Predict the structure of Structural maintenance of chromosomes protein 5.
Amino acid sequence: MEMRVDMIISPNGTGKSSIACAIALGLNWPPSILGRASELNSFVKIGATDGYIEIELKGKIGKKNLVVRRNLSSTSKGSTYHLNGQAATGREVTNKMNELNIQVGNLCSFLPQDKVSEFAHMSSQQLLRETQRAAGDPHLTSWHDTLISAGKEMAQLAEVLNSEKQQIKTLGDRNAMLERDVQRFNERKELERQIALVELILPFMEYIEAKRHYTDAKTKQRALHKAVQALQAKNKPMHDFKKSLESRLKRVNDQRDGKKESAKRRFRAMKTKWDESEKLETQAEEISNKLSNLKKEEKSRAKRVQELEKGVQMLQADLAKPLEVEDIAAIDEDIRRLNQSQNDTRKRQFDLKEQQKRLVEDESRTRAEINEGECTLKQLDDVSHRKLQRLAQNDPDCAAIIHWLRANKHRFRMEIIEPAMISLTVPNKDYVNAVEACFNITQLKARTFVAQCDDDYRLLNQLVSDTVEALGKKVRITTWFRPVEGNIAPPPMTLDEAHSLGFDGYAIDFVECPQAMRAFLQRECQLHRTAIALQTNRVDTARTMEAISRAGGGNYIVSNTMNMVTRSQYGRRPPQNLTRDVRPARILVGPVVDPAARQKIESMIAQSRDKLTVHAEEARRLGDIERQVSREQKEYKDAFDALKARKLAVLAAKKHMDTLENKLRIQQSRLEELRRVKLTDSERAGLKKNLLTVTRQRSDIAQQYAGLVRVAIKDQVEATKFGLEYLQECSRKRELEALLEERDAEYQAALAEFHTTNTVYVRAKERSKELLDISKAKLDEVDDELQRTFQAMEESGTAHERSADQLKDELETLREKLELLATDPGVIEQYERRKEEIKSLSRKLEERERHAAKLEKSIKVARVRQLATCFTRPRHVHRTLGIGCAGELQLTPHDDYEKWAITILVKFRDTEQLQQLRAHRQSGGERSLTTILYLMSMTECARAPFSLVDEINQGMDQRAERAVHNELVKTTCKADSGQYFLITPKLLPDLKYDRLMKVLCVNNGKWLPEDNSLGNMMSMIRDYVAKRGSSGAAFM
């Protein structure tokens, strides 16, 4: 007999839900739809290396059944498939499931145990989508998809159409505003064409007129050239005579210049002789002066000899006086004895300085010992320092890194936070045990340094872990950095709610640390989620577990007990609590100070202070000795200075006598030199002889000078004669030039006129050529149309009707008109571009409007079908359960077809109003009841070949469970119903059954007897049926 309902029953833990898992996995659905393990190999039986799932599916009418086998392995996340014994791929299996319309992934047709609660969590839109897939017309989903996609496209298209229509209107309005400017632009273009034509004709007319002027100038230039040549031939004989005169004038002038030059040479020679005579005259005067000065020098020398003799006598008298000074040897002896007596004083002074130096060193050493002891006492009182010392004993590398960081803060952008055991303190020691319990030992003792920016995080790892730059070796440490904007899980309850439950606060509230360390404590240690209460009787445990489990789990501490709240992974996932004792804190409390060590340090400080007192007494004694030595030193200095002054006086007297002796020798030497000088008669005779020689030389020079004067006079006379002849020839030349000037006046006038005419001719020739080039260039520049117009005017002769001046006047008039028609050069470009753009947009708009009409038609057809199909479905669940509950389905259309939804309205008491089914409004049993009733309501129109519900009755009371079971049997045990799997761990007695039901009891577990004859399920069932005499159900 073909069964409609397969009821699978057995206690929890026997593996009945494994059947649901096998169906889902065997038909190639992922493990995620089951809500259990996420990996495929987790479903292989523990202890086995592999396994398989084999499912036989009823084929369509006229086709054989389909056998699907999936092989699993505990060591691999992959699997293999077989279809009817042939190897296949996962895609082929999926295609077969789609052909058979099997919907294991739809909660409306396949509801595993761990997904029961998710049915109420589905949104109204998601519920509609899943309902359409599970029941009703098979085209509902495609119609809805058509509405969604076409609706979105239609909305976008409508927006685009409105935008393009507005754009076309805007462009049209803008072009309408430009039409007047366009008309003015066209008028301006016509004026520009006329100006271009006149500008083209003008250079041609100017060239024609310039050519005419050039022809006239050329004729006149040729006539004047002939006249000039005739006049030049007529005056040529007189010009030739003028040239002969000019030749004779040049010859006479050269002769006159030669005589003048000869006279100049004579005059220069005369000047030379004159200069020589003057020089000899000067020598004669000097010799005469020397003869007269000889007598004066003899008198002066005699006077100097007398002065030196007197000075020598005075020096000899001074030297003859006896020198009365002390014996310098005696003074030196006194100085030696004084220095010898001072040696003892110097030795005493040296010994004194050594004693004072040792005393200062001992005093400094003693004070350093006192400072070191006081510093050590302060460090004993410094908890942070004691923590660092303890860390150095247990982890020297970590302590070395802390010391290095404190000395190298400048290398980082922001401060690197030291590990929690150093940088974190608990001011209130009552909470230190609870706070330390929130950490694991790794978080407290590991080298976890907190960086405040990514650059510092990378730099610290590079300097310490990747290189030896920091410590001279590579050290493995733990560094931490997270961006500030990262998500931090909120506390399980507000602080006010925690206080109301009896908690003192969260662990994060009882610690002091840098802000960056707080972020680490929140993210990694969850101190902001761990509530603490020191008094046990104040905490409401039940409410606390409910609040913390509602947030997904967490920890809380009451007195000396740590509570760890989690949710079960099975069934209804009730909250669970695991406890452990809170140990006394060891890391966050500072090490205890050894009293003996403190007493030893204090004793050392007292001894050092006693030493300072002794040092002070010794310093006073050495001070008295130093003052006595200073007095002796002063007496020695005074005596030494007196002896030194006496010795200097003796040396000064001796030096004065040496100076007098040296001066005497010098004056005696000078006196001897003057006495040796005597004037002789030979010197006077030599001077007279020189004077006679100079006089004779002057006489010879006078005779030579007279001869030069006579020759110069002769040359001057001849030069005068040539000058007179030159003047006569010049007079004749002037008379000839006057005559030529009269005859050349006519020639020069004709020549000047010729030059003027020739200049006009040359300029006219250049101008005509220039204008011809301009005309040709202008003709090449204009467009073809303008060239054709110009050629037509040339052929008709209209181009030559106006002169160049008339053309210039016309051109000026046209340009003035053009200036009055000032327009934007880009107007016509904008106008034409917008015109083309309007045409293009209009074509696109027509295409889009046609497309929009098609979309609107398809939306209308799909909407009519969707609404007709959906609203013909029953909107009310049967009220025949007899348990006082009711429900209603509402289809909620929306302009956005993606927001179409099914709303489930339920009530479970006659006095209540219908309310929407939500995940947190109804109880678990009410949600389960609503879920199964909704699934039952779709049974008659279900399209899936089978459905499955696992432990849907777990949260129901007996009254609802019985009514639901009986209604389920009544609904599903019909000839036109699909196969239904109902999995439950328990059943109530006296339930209704049907012949189309099959009850499968899973007889599995570790307590089964080894003897197969005992506890045979089939035997027990047969006995039971025989006793009851009932055949209402079939059992296997």
Observations:
- The mean pLDDT is 76.
